[in-house]
Amino acid sequence: MMLPGWREWLFAFKVSGAALLALGIALWVDLPRPYWAMATVYITMQPLSGATRSKAVYRVVGTLIGVCVAVILVPSLVNAPEVLTLSLALWTAACLYLSLLDRSPRAYLFMLAGYTAALIGFPAVTAPETIFDIAVSRAEEITLGIVCASVVGSLVVPQPVGPVLAARVGAWLAEAGRWTGDVLKGAGEEPAVRARRLRLAAEAAEIDALSTHLAYDTSAQSRAVPLVQLLRGRMLMLLPVLSSLADRIAALRGLGGVTPDLRALLDDVEAWSEAGAPEAEADALLARIEAADQALPPAVSWTALVRAGLLDRLRELVAIGRDCSVLQAHIARGGGRLRAPLAFAGEFGGQAPRHRDHGMALRSALGVFLGTIACVAVWIATAWPDGATAAMMGAVLCCLFAGQDDPAPAIVSFATWTGVAAVAIGVLLFGVMPLVHDFVSLALVLAPALVLCGLLMTLPRTMAVGMALGVNGNALLAIQDRYTSEFGAYVNSSVALVGGIWIAALVTRLVRSVGAEHGARRLIAASRADLARAARRRGRGDRAAFAHLMLDRLGLLVPRLAAAGPDSPLRRIDTLAALRAGMNLVSLRRARHGLPADQVAALDDALDAVAAHYDRPLGAASAVLLERIDASLALIGAEAGGPGRRDALLGLAGLRRALFPEAPPPGAGAPLLTVEAA
């Protein structure tokens, strides 16, 4: 396991210092449960200060909403415990559903609003007359923890998001540059290169998640948030462009169409890319590409179509590469006015769409609902004194891990390490704490354990362990302004805490667990549904929005494919080929508005066949679809036409390559019209 470096140690000391600060203030102002503030610090604190602040506001607002809901529900329904349980469980489930659909820092608002009501409502059931005091105290303690985490994260050697994001973007663009070199050399379809491009898709999703915190940062890059959004759009568009370019180069090589002048142009673009895509040289390259691109004549050949498609993708590659270089430089300087307009200026504005899986969100909501009901049922059936602890922990744990395909192993691990924490805290509580008589000695006793929890949170493999120890360890320690611990009560509380987590794990296993392959299949099915929808719609499509949505899914899909196992048929799917098909469908939807009626009818027949293909389960495209694409190519390519002809021909050629990469060309080098006649 990788040893922690200085950044990890810094975070560990910061989170432990923030926890002790929250504890000290809570004791000073005489809050009833200071340990809630300590536990909140471990939930809130993030290594990057901007990430901590981005979540802090939403956590506070979500907590206040949850408090208000608990204050409304408990007094009104305390005489109807079944209805109260259903109401709290339904509220938590509904908030979790909204949280899973949001997929931004705002999601914490919904999640906190949900399980805060459970945290406050269930313990108050036995004493409803105290609900207002309990609610106010919980709100104060949780808010204190959030504020302490934010202040310490922002003032004590802050780790801003901006430089980290800039470094990640630079590394991503450097890797994309290496892929560009492989593509232009003709090695873009080799297995190692294909694996690398999938990693780029996953890393682009990680960069996107990191960029959501930039607006809350204090670095110079925080002023360049609009430029970051523009850069992100171009980074995402770069993936299908490079994939399409690799496909066209491979196809043209098979046709013997890579002429010496085209090879020289590809080599020059490769050299430009290796030099960092300097802005000054981009215009000259674009002019050369324009000169090499000839008008498509009547009875155009397949080789000419592939060459024209290659030059189109090459033109887009240079334009996007130049934009990326310009935007990266401006972001590093903290923004500033762009000297020249960017390419594709109208395609990257507004909020990029994100994938939302309503089915899995509903399933997760059902899991937390049933998990909460199960905990309450055990509480009532056994008259368990600490049953409220089990109920609230069941609700919280079902929410915390709901974003995973199979949350049960993580919840079980959380339960296991909570048990370890219970034993360790028991030793500390009954063996050491009786000797503590002031806050300084208390801080010295707690500091080593708090630092250890912080260290564990910084390492991906042990993050859940650190959370379990840091959050539940503080809850079990239950520090008050005076020592009042009693062994029997401690054991009962510990059993309730661990028992509630185990009940959550059991219900999750029965209701929610699906596995990585199931999650991958759902993502693929959602993409196929969108491809079918894009083929059926006859309006003009938004190419950038479609690419953003498909690539957002691709970023979610890549880690699931990696976890699906080497023998899974899903790992043999060319995910970027499906994206290329979608981009060509959008181009065809635009092109059909510039075609005569007979050509529109032929094109629509092909699009309907594409929609039928994507409506079916995974499998090879049918020969009927290939015939319709070829028929449409032959009809549109036979005669000179209006402005939509070129886009239609290149879109159909790209669609054919994406769906039938192994199919023989429709009369390579011969007019397409003769293919239809044959």
UniProtKB/TrEMBL annotation:
Q: Where in the cell is it found?
A: Cell membrane
| Recorded GO MF terms | transmembrane transporter activity
Q: How does it sit in the membrane?
A: Multi-pass membrane protein
The keyword Protein transport appears for this protein: no
Q: What is its main location?
A: membrane
Transmembrane domains' residue ranges: 9-29, 58-77, 83-101, 361-381, 410-433, 439-457, 489-511
Q: Which UniProt keywords apply?
A: Cell membrane, Membrane, Transmembrane, Transmembrane helix, Transport
InterPro entries, per the entry: PHBA_efflux_AaeB/fusaric-R (IPR006726)
Q: Mind telling me which GO cellular component terms the entry cites?
A: plasma membrane
Alphabetical list of PANTHER family matching this protein:
MULTIDRUG RESISTANCE PROTEIN MDTO (PTHR30509:SF9), P-HYDROXYBENZOIC ACID EFFLUX PUMP SUBUNIT-RELATED (PTHR30509)
Name listed for the protein in its UniProt record? Fusaric acid resistance protein
Organism of derivation: Methylobacterium variabile
